[in-house]
Amino acid sequence: MNVNLVFSAVSAAIAVTAFSLWGWKSLCILALYIGFLYVIKDRSALYVQLVVIAVSGSIYIVHTERNQTGLHADLRQFSITFTDIPEIDGNSMETIAKTASGEKLMVRRIFNNYKEKRNFEEQYQAGMQCKVTGTLDLPDPARNENSFNYRKYLYYRGIHWMLKVQSLENCKIEQQPNLLYSLKNIRYKGLKLVKKHFSKESQGIAAALLFGEAGFINENILQNYQVLGIIHLLSISGLHVTILAGGLFLLGIRSGITRKKMHVLLFTVLPLYAVLTGLSPPVIRACGMAMIYLCLQLVNIRVSVAQTICLAYIGFAALNPYILFDPGFQLSFSVTSALLFSSKIISRYPTLLLQSFIISCICQVCSLPIMLYHFFEVSIAGLFVNVVFVPLYSFIILPLAILAFSFIWVHAAAAKLLIHFFHIILHTVNGWLDLLSSIPVSSIVFGKPHFIVLVFLTGLILGIFYCWEIKAKITCIVLVFLMTILLCYQYFAEYVTPFGEVTFLDVGQGDSIFIKLPFGRGTYLIDTGGQLQFNRESWEEKSSTFEVGKDIVVPFLKGKGITKLDKLILTHPDADHLGGAPNVLKEISAEQILISQAALKGYKKSLNDIKSSIVAVKGGSAWTTGKESFYILNPQGNPKDTNEASIVILAEIAGKRWLFTGDLGKEGESLLMEKYPGLEADYLKAGHHGSKNSTSGEFLDQVDPASAFISAGENNRYGHPSQEVLNVLKEHNVLIYRTDKDGAITFRFFNRNGTFSEMLP
């Protein structure tokens, strides 16, 4: 094994990471790594690695300079060529296209009726050229901490704009489409065949295994795979490439074809297979490795598989450094590398079952920093579940999917029988997964680690593997102990940190406020946001739906390491305040749920199946934590309007007075002023999203806040916040924070001092 090659791959990764961050973190990374090289390498080898760092950093800078847009938001007419297969879900479609100048766009279209959708599905082909009228919008950035940054995701793929289609016309197909488009169209037809012949429950798994398309998989099934740490089974990776390449090679040799000719054939077939399966990062990694290995074999250069993965990594870093930031690519490379470099460790164990368990342990441990950084939790069940499910998928489910799909053309009756058998197996497997994922300790949420914790964790894992290989048992045990301490610190961080925060989440047109007190004195969530549900026709229903509680609030809380709330306060039973509660409570428990005593009937539908303690409160209730106090001022009486029945909380946090008003209107504000004539607050959560029916001038005169926070959706249909309210706030010299403009707004404090920050610049 060429050690310099390993260091060159690491140097390339370090350089791209450092140049992408470029700040104190990047300087720390570079300084630590160069210092490490200085200690263990001779001068000439050190110079080689410095050259690799300089070249890799320069390549990243060149890619960044070239990754620019030539379009502007005022454009309305476009001539585009569709370059990829579409993702059609319900009444919407998304796909990638390029303009006449070659710039890539993410194209989004809403279908007006079922006939329009069906016509598009039947006529669509990659390479189709169309005249489009539409608008250009910037992709959404991350509007909350720990949420998905769609703008960055598209930027790394060279896409800067979303094209929202208003009309599509004059579409035509190239007479001689290129090979790439032809392969993508074959993939598109294959996916349509899967959707047509396989059952609804099995078509998602079949599409993922055969064509690398996970969009058909039911959300609950997908979540079970994620919780149990076996989501990798649903992505095409080295396993599929090995089965394909090994099968073809064996077939060719048995047919009398020479090894050299088979190497040439495989070198040709693998990139075609990569396109047919969607060019996902794991596929690119596996096919890239195999092609490098075959190419070197053809010119009689002998390399090990471990050297091949290093060459592949260096090659990808040079061709497209952005791919290094893809979580799938990171996991694929880290797990594969760990298994290759740990081959001596695995071979020490005598039985196949024990080796399978050791392999599962190695995969879980080496992927730990990546899983915590991107997903904030790790699967404990995965250690054991992988031992059973990897062979099950490798030797039964995957071959059966390939066989069943192949027989669609050969023998329809046989294909139907195989597909039915495939469905029965998956139905049974899904039942097992439902049961296993319901076990409380199937996964552990650690939260997103700090940069320094990640560095130490990665270093400890590398040290553990090294000591394991050289059989330094005592040192290995010490390192495992230190890693355990580090993970315990990460898990219990909220109980040892002296810092607290108040965050107004951006949940669109709704409310959700998170309060975390120092040293674990309390974690509270005021409302969960939610969406109004509208009746849709069956063809408009999406298989994968965005939901505020599941897609915004839960990732935010998990990123903070929060798995239990001391109190969930649902101010009133409007959908935009408690609609996300059921999905939040599926993954985050609450010791106590506070609801408004003046609007009990409205909560029943949303809280029917909730097992937490539910307490109805009214004005006059209170609780303290030692340093912080919380007073409930409303509801009072039994108002007819649920907005006026909102729970209103006056809190004393970090030496400041905070007034959280829910959707309280002017009528409720008048009652508060009447009952609490001395009511004042430093910070005010403006009622009802800044509606003109709340936040009166008289109320501001009495409360006299320094700052006000308005939670409203960007470009919402209600026109919130009202210009009238904004004017009144300005007249009272109140500093205004708005989630529709600023994204999430966070106040971080230590003792009695704190600062505000907005998610959006």
From TrEMBL:
Note the superkingdom of the native organism: Bacteria
The record's listing under Gene3D superfamilies reads: Ribonuclease Z/Hydroxyacylglutathione hydrolase-like
| Compartments it resides in | Cell membrane
Tell me which residues make up the Metallo-beta-lactamase domain: 509-714
Q: Which GO terms describe its biological process?
A: establishment of competence for transformation
Bilayer disposition of the protein: Multi-pass membrane protein
Q: Which SUPFAM superfamilies match?
A: Metallo-hydrolase/oxidoreductase
The reply on keyword Transmembrane is: yes
Q: Which GO terms describe its cellular component?
A: plasma membrane
Q: Where are the transmembrane segments?
A: 6-39, 46-63, 227-252, 264-284, 304-325, 352-376, 388-410, 417-439, 451-468, 475-492
* UniProt keyword list: Cell membrane, Membrane, Transmembrane, Transmembrane helix
Main localization, broad class: membrane
Q: Which Pfam families match?
A: Competence, DUF4131, Lactamase_B
Database matches in NCBIfam families: ComEC_N-term, ComEC_Rec2
* UniProt xrefs under PANTHER family: DNA INTERNALIZATION/COMPETENCE PROTEIN COMEC/REC2, RECOMBINATION PROTEIN 2
Q: What is this protein called?
A: DNA internalization-related competence protein ComEC/Rec2
